[in-house]
Every structure is written in structure tokens, then in C-alpha cells.
Amino acid sequence: MLCREAWGARPPRPGGVTHTLNRMTIHHTAVVLGDNSNAPGRLRQHQRYHQDSKGWIDIAYHVSVDRYGNVYELRKPELVGDTATSYDPTGHFLVVCEGNFDEEDITEAQLHGAALAFAWAAQQFGIPTATLGGHRDASPDTECPGTSLYAHVTSGDLKRRIDDLAAAGTVELRKICGPEAEAIVADIEAGRR
């Protein structure tokens, strides 16, 4: 998991509400990513929008996954996420996949990255994998996480992937920071990763 500093995150604003995680919810950004090299820059855009336009303390989600399965650290999981829709994200571990999955297909690498993040959270925070849902399951006023990604939720495929990873042993989602993480992000932005 690439540290916030590596992708150029601003510091979070003071505040936030702590919570106990008990659910897993997957989202998409609802914007076509284009080339995967755009992913770190998109995170910076999302964070600016969420902080400057929405007035939130930070980017809304806990973890992001790009098309190639790179996992990015976002908001601290201990803090409730934010939403522009009509549900209360308290208790939800929020993973967002970069892209618009009403217009593009989710990749195998991105599904694996999301499953890895959820399996890690299940073990770290004791979240039952049976709670996995799409954003639209919690809020009737959205189609998030898009048709292509949501099909993996409704078919049980994403939950199976999470359960398989968790059953294989301790799920490592090692946080990568400093020069190593900065080099990885540079490679992503250069289209090499």
C-alpha cells in the first residue's frame, strides 16, 4: 500500500469521527481513468475536490486501487468516510476503484487489489466478509460502483476472492513509504507500472 505522501496527498484537516469498522463497501470514482499513469494525479484531484468543494476533512475513502492493482493509502480507516449520497458511512471500510465501470471494464489486477485490501481489513479489523456490498446497496440514489464492478459483487465473485485470500493465511498489505514508494509512484506516472 503506497503511503499518502508518495502520491502527493495533502495533510488531512483536523477533526473526523472515529468508528468501529463492521462493513465493507466498494465504490468507483465514476470518471473514466484513461491511461493508468493518470491514477496518482486523479487521487490528488479527488482530494482537492473533497476538501475544497465538499469541505470534508480528507479524501472520502480509506483505500484506492488503480487499473494495475496498485493500492493507495487514503483516509485513516479509524475515521468515518464521507459521501455525497444518502447513506451513513459509519462502520464502512471504503475501497474505491479508479474508473467508471458503467463505461469501462474492471481489470483482473484491480479486482485482485480490491480483494487484497478487503481481506487485509477483514483480518485487521474483524470485519465479516458477508457484509461486502456496493455503494448502491447502501444508498438508493447512486449506481456506484458501476455495472462492470457491481457484477462481481452480486455474483459473489469478489467475496470469494476475499475469502480465498483470507483463508490462505495472514494477508500482508505492507505500507510502502519514503523513497521506495516515491519511485513506484514515479514509475506509475511514467507508464512503467
Radius of gyration (CA) equals 15 Å
β-strand number? 5
- Summarize the main sheet: 5 strands, mixed
The H/E string reads HEHEEEHEHHHH
Which percent band covers the strand fraction? Answer: 5-15%
Termini gap:
14 Å
Unreliable residue stretches = none
Write a concise keyword list for the protein shown above.
10% strand; 5 strands; alpha/beta; 7 helices; 193 residues
Fold and architecture overview:
The protein is α/β, with parallel strands linked by helices. It contains seven helices and five strands, in the order αβαβββαβαααα. Helix 3 crosses helix 6. The model has no long low-confidence stretch (mean pLDDT 97).
List the helices and strands and how they pair.
Elements: H1 4-7, E1 23-28, H2 39-53, E2 63-65, E3 71-73, E4 92-97, H3 108-125, E5 133-134, H4 135-138, H5 147-154, H6 157-167, H7 178-189
Parallel strand pairs: 1-4, 1-5, 2-4
Antiparallel strand pairs: 2-3
Nutshell version of this structure?
The protein has about 190 residues and is of the alpha/beta class. It is built from seven helices and five strands.
